Amino acid sequence: MDDPIYKPEIKTSLFSPFLVAVQFLTVMPPLLKRPFTDQELGQAVGYYPLVGLLLGGVLVAANSALALLFPTALRIALLLALWVILTGVLHLDGFLDACDGLFGGWTPEKRLHIMRDERVGAFALAGGVLLLLTKYVALTTVAATAVSATAAPLIKALLIAPVLARWAMSLALIRYPYARAEGLGRTMKDMASGRELLLATGTAVLVALLVGGSVGVWALLAAVVTAVATAHFVMQRIPGLTGDIYGTICELTELVILLVFAAW
Predict the structure, then answer these.
(1) What is the pTM of this model?
(2) Residues in a beta bridge with 178
């Protein structure tokens, strides 16, 4: 007779946390066709910037291909659409929910409740439009200053922005309290540690310096300021961060880094 409380052991590997991070943050087909363990979810946080580098590589390749067919303005629009699609709209959805919750509620409890509401309100609509519009203009500005579609400024921006934005998520997840008593974000928060933050930070710094050089240093500083400022603003309105806030930090960090490249 089978034991009703028996649970089969899940076999993990050295690469499992990275595969979990890829599967969680992108629309890539399932690489691990089984439930994730809590430990894997926590360890995956350290690989978020590496997933950002993978995403950036896809965007760079797509940019080169689109440049063969379309003018700059349309190419950037398609590239931005691909950027959103590749992430499964995960971070953008969090940003929209956060806009409604943080600005539409009068108490911390009400704000948290609104962020779980699937309906899109006026704050979300306005925030989403402004976010995507500003990203589009920033990318177009960087592309317009390049001598070709594959020139260094645009390539650097496409590689560095996804990496540092996902590092900002790792930083916020590990260093700031979580607002809810349970949920996927709570599991990641509880299982992640300073080791994951060290791995994520090392990856982000290497990419920023090796790919970006001097502008990479400014992008790294911008990512730190954006993540910390956003987290502190949120903590004044709700008692901690949530999954939606992690997505918000990712989106805002990408935006700020693109603005750094546009200004540069």
Answers:
(1) 0.91
(2) 241
Contact between 163 and 222 (Cβ < 8 Å):
no
224-255 burial string, b = 16+ CB within 10 Å, else e? bebbbebbeebeeebebbbbbbbbbbbbbbbb
3-state DSSP helix/strand/coil percent for the chain, to nearest 5?
75, 0, 25
Burial category of 75 from C-beta neighbours within 10 Å (exposed 0-12, middle 13-18, buried 19 and up):
buried
- Cα(231)–Cα(227) distance, integer angstroms: 6
Q: What is the pLDDT of residues 181-222, one digit of tens each?
A: 887 888 999 999 999 999 999 999 999 999 999 999 999 999
Q: CB of 148 within 8 A of CB of 156?
A: no
CB 101 within 8 A of CB 244: yes
Average pLDDT of the chain to the nearest whole number: 90
Distance CA 87, CA 66 (A): 19
CA distance 81 to 23: 19
Over the range 149-183, which residues count as b (16 or more CB within 10 Å of their CB) and which as e? beeebbbbbbbbbbbbbbbbbbbbbbebebbbeee
Question: Is 229 within 8 Å of 177 (Cβ atoms)?
Answer: no
